[in-house]
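Service request form, structural biology core

Requester: graduate student, group of Dr. S.
Request type: structure prediction, single chain
Budget code: on file
Notes: please return the result as structure tokens.

Sequence provided:
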Amino acid sequence: MGLSEIAAGLELTTTQVERGVATVDDTDVDLGARLRKFEEELPCTAVAAETVLDAYESGTSVGDAGAAAALAPMTAAKLLHRCGVEGVTPISPTARRVLRDWLDGRLARADALELADADDAEFALAAYVETHEPIPEPAEAVRRDRSEPITGDALVSKRDALAETMSTGSELR
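Core staff response, request fulfilled:
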């Protein structure tokens, strides 16, 4: 029995009252202007930050996004973290616990590096991520700026790229 057979006898007898939440739409303010307010807290200029965020959003790697703004990959990763991008830390959850032990003074740095199985650069970035929280306002601005729905050609290309991972209805039986 398919959905069309199940829904064959259903009909709508009442109408729903639209109750929305009052919102303020400030999406016409560009991301660069939002980032300029917090430039002193970011590891680079607002212009460079916008370039990195745009490049990263388009699917480039952290290193390539940094190169687009003439920044070192480490600086680009720090910026992405401060702007609320998840998953920038280069070490595993277990290694993060080891890092926290080092930060708390319970382990020597050499021991923590060995136990975390990380090189100096990875360890330094992970330490930065552990000791610096994302800045709430830029993180929210980045989230709002990136929340536009995917439509048109972008949607088609995304579906094409993910086609092998999608199942059809016949595969679920």
